[in-house]
Amino acid sequence: MHSSSAFYRTKGRGEQVVRSIFPETTIVRPAPVFGFEDKLLHKLAGQANLFTSNHMQERFRPVHSIDVGSALAVMAEDDSTAGETYELYGPKEYSMAEIATMVDREIIKHRRHINLPPRILKSLSEWYNRLIWWSQTCADKVEREFIDQKVDPKAKTFKDLGIEPANIANYTFHYLVSIYGPVSVA
Q1: What distance, in Å, lies between the first and last C-alpha atoms of the chain?
Q2: Rounded CA gap, 113 and 141, in Å?
Q3: If we measure between CA atoms, which residue out of 103, 81, 79, 99 comes closest to residue 90?
Q4: pTM above 0.90, yes or no
């Protein structure tokens, strides 16, 4: 609840409020998710992913959307999960730069990333969002580039549900080939 990110603070506050009203609520905290049409791999592969503010050093354990769905299915059928908190994350921690390198390898392109000071990128993001009708970024997303994923040691995980999470390194081709197509060599 003491995060520098308003997004994370409101998530924390939301958990507190829900638990105070419905103590039996199961709280699920997935790591950044990858899968079909995700906002992780496809953002990194896209043209709009140009500016960063932390040299892409944010660290997290990306989780497969199928694994999250499987966990939710188990929770829906198992009453013992009521009132528990689950941290759902992948088996390996990566920096955003490491994932970007995997994406570049699959799309056979090197996406350029220009690092800007956070104060400048936050101002640019607000200005940019005034020009287009859909939000691409915001000051709080820039702030989150400086926050690594921290796993609550008291929370339950995939292991408690009998699920072995998938590693993003085994799926980058699978999810990017549908958009960028296989490369043919003549």
Answers
A1: 56
A2: 16
A3: 99
A4: no
Place of tokens 């690594």: 148
- By C-alpha distance, which of 24, 25, 42, 20 is closest to 33? 42
Per-residue pLDDT of the chain (186 residues; tens, 9 = 90+): 689 999 999 999 999 999 999 999 999 999 999 999 898 998 888 877 778 899 999 999 999 999 999 999 999 999 999 999 999 999 999 999 999 999 999 988 888 888 999 999 898 888 877 777 666 778 899 999 999 999 999 999 999 999 999 999 999 998 988 666 555 555
Secondary structure of residue 132 in the 3-state scheme: coil
Task: List the structure tokens of 97.
Answer: 């730069």
Give buried/exposed letters for 44-65 (b at 16+ CB in 10 A, else e).
bbeeebebbbbebebebbbbbb
